[in-house]
């Protein structure tokens, strides 16, 4: 990181990419697109639209998903998407800390919740198992009393 801060760029593959320490993922669009396409291919999700013959999932799909699902107010959403309007500096005051807190609260809206549902199901199964064990103990007591 120290070298990146000093020289202000990083070299990856054949592309010189500007390094911005303010960004979570500081990478060139070409790199992001390549990584996304490889993941889509490995997952077997590289299907094409029968009407347009374009891929149904592409790098811009991530932005569309984020924009439609994040659930924040439009100014916060646009700020997180990196949209900057010519009047934003004059009229819009969004502090990074407030934006980060809003994002953290909204993360469940854009996060794959399968683990959350799986944990809830595991909790329910544990409760059911405990009830069955209790019922089994009661039945065993009744059986011993009847003998």
Walk me through the structure.
The structure is a single chain. The chain has seven helices and two strands. The radius of gyration is 25 Å and the shape is elongated. Helices cover 62% and strands 5% of the residues. It is mainly alpha-helical and 147 residues long. The chain folds into three domains: 1-57, no CATH class; 69-111, no CATH class; 119-147. The chain has a two-stranded antiparallel ribbon.
Please give a handful of descriptors for the protein shown.
147 residues, mainly alpha, elongated, 7 helices, two-stranded antiparallel ribbon
Gist of the model:
The protein has 3 domains: 57 residues, no CATH class; 43 residues, no CATH class; 29 residues.
**How many helices in DSSP terms?**
7
Share of residues in helices: 55-70%
> How many independent structural domains?
3
Tell me the strand order in the biggest sheet.
Answer: 1-2
State the shape: elongated
Low-confidence stretches: 1-16
Straight-line distance between termini: 76 Å
The helix/strand class is: mainly alpha
Radius of gyration: 25 Å
Task: Give the tally of β-strands.
Answer: 2
Strand content: 5-15%
How do the helices and strands follow one another from N- to C-terminus? HEEHHHHHH
Mean pLDDT equals 81
The profile of the biggest β sheet is: 2 strands, antiparallel
Secondary structure layout plus pairing:
Layout: H1 2-7, E1 9-12, E2 15-18, H2 29-42, H3 59-69, H4 74-81, H5 88-91, H6 96-110, H7 114-146
């Amino acid at each position: 990181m120290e070298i990146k801060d000093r020289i202000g760029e990083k070299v990856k593959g054949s592309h010189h990419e500007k390094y911005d320490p303010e960004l979570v993922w500081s990478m060139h669009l070409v790199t992001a697109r390549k990584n996304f396409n490889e993941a889509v291919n490995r997952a077997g999700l590289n299907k094409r639209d029968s009407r347009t013959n374009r891929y149904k999932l592409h790098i811009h799909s991530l932005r569309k998903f984020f924009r439609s699902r994040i659930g924040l107010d439009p100014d916060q959403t646009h700020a997180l998407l990196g949209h900057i309007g010519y009047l934003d500096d004059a009229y819009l005051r969004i502090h990074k800390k407030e934006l980060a807190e809003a994002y953290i609260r909204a993360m469940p809206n854009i996060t794959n919740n399968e683990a959350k549902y799986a944990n809830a199901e595991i909790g329910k199964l544990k409760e059911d198992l405990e009830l069955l064990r209790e019922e089994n103990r009661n039945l065993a007591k009744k059986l011993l009393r009847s003998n």
